[in-house]
Amino acid sequence: MENVEYFKDKNVLVLGLAVSGYNAALLLNRLGSNVVVNDFKDLSANPEAQDLEDKGIKVISGGHPLEILKKPLDFIVKNPGIPYSNPLLKRALEKKIKIITEVELAYRISESPIIAITGTNGKTTTTMMCEALLNENRLNGEAYAVGNIGIPASLVAQNSSKKDDLVLEISSFQLMGIDKFHPMIAVITNIYSAHLDYHNSREEYVKAKMAITKNQKESDYIIFNQDQEELVQLVRTESKAKPIPFSRKTELKYGACIKNGMIVFNGEEVMPTDHVLIPGEHNLENALAAIVVAKIKGVSNNNIKHAFYKFKGVKHRMQHVETLDGRAFYNDSKATNSLATINALESFSKPVILIAGGLDREESHEDLIPVLKKNVKTLVTFGETKNQLAEVAKKANIDTVIVKETVSDATQAGFKNSQEGDIILLSPACASWDQYNNFEERGDDFIETVKGLGLSI
């Protein structure tokens, strides 16, 4: 580990337990910091909280008492999901206490080069593609996919070496809490509008995304989507790193693109596009970004091909779950906004029964109308947005619109109203927090329901 002495005797508040907070607290304790953990939930029966207390770490739960800030603090490690509007954080900012997220902590101790991947959509799939490509026939070290995918970066960073790579999926929430964070390679898959309930404005959201490159130098790399003019301009004006574009729509002499059915990098053919086995034009973009990373890291075309032969996608992201009675079920629970659902629907040429709904973020979802008209025969809605999405479906002249309460009920209804050859797709276009802790739980509910349908046939 690097910078171990920096953390010794530091007074640190870890705000929010969860997986990243638990691991951050353990690491800081190991490094000799004086750690206090605070969570709004009552943790009196929480085994992780008990484990921390057994190690001498103070845990305060059941609220965010401002009295915590009376004792001197060197910095706060905050759970990314806690907004800066939280009264305790607002008071900390007034007191000029540094607030970071766990990825900053991981960067500070990491011996391994960091490849950081962000974007509105596609960052998880791109992260997993990069891990697969970098590990194909690798002779020294290993690439580890960490971060927003669910594996705390600090947990892996404390044990990885200079021979390894950390492939870090990083969200806008996490990027708002960086200070010295400095990836060797930064990837921005795309930028649209998302999480405006957290960021308050699109400008703040874009600023958070672009923070991925703020500490990069001329010797580093930034990989970006050439098909987005806004992103082209942002990279040009805000990054010092070497820019390498990728494009699905335009042939490029420099960077990665598609030409005559082949993926090409710097004019050299790498592999046919049909080697990307997961459906969707957006997944071709993810593959282009991952291939640029692989080429920078010296991975051969042959190893890139072999890695893609084996890459079958990521759970909850256009995941083929089962085919029952000629109906193919796909789990795209990670589609938490309209754009992700549009990309999913455009991946299919067969009729689609779409299952959608979730947390109401006061978005109109009317941008779904063109693709609903083109690709969807039946819409089954659920959750807080069920009635709103049903109205959108009517505007799109969808013949069959079914309103249900839960994913399970919606899945069963979709199956009952399907025919052989149909695609039954869970692609919610909404966050999961109205009924679930996260999109993974929502996707697992869908998977279990599909398995139950298989047993009843």
Automatic annotation (TrEMBL):
Alphabetical list of InterPro entries matching this protein: Mur-like_cat_sf, Mur_ligase_C, Mur_ligase_C_dom_sf, Mur_ligase_cen, MurD
Subcellular location: Cytoplasm
UniProt keywords, alphabetically: ATP-binding, Cell cycle, Cell division, Cell shape, Cell wall biogenesis/degradation, Cytoplasm, Ligase, Nucleotide-binding, Peptidoglycan synthesis
Keyword Lipoprotein among UniProt keywords: no
Domain Mur ligase central positions: 117-294
Residues in Mur ligase C-terminal domain copies: 316-430
Function field: Cell wall formation. Catalyzes the addition of glutamate to the nucleotide precursor UDP-N-acetylmuramoyl-L-alanine (UMA).
Protein name, entry field: UDP-N-acetylmuramoylalanine--D-glutamate ligase
Organism phylogeny: Bacteria, Bacillati, Bacillota, Bacilli, Lactobacillales
Primary gene name: murD
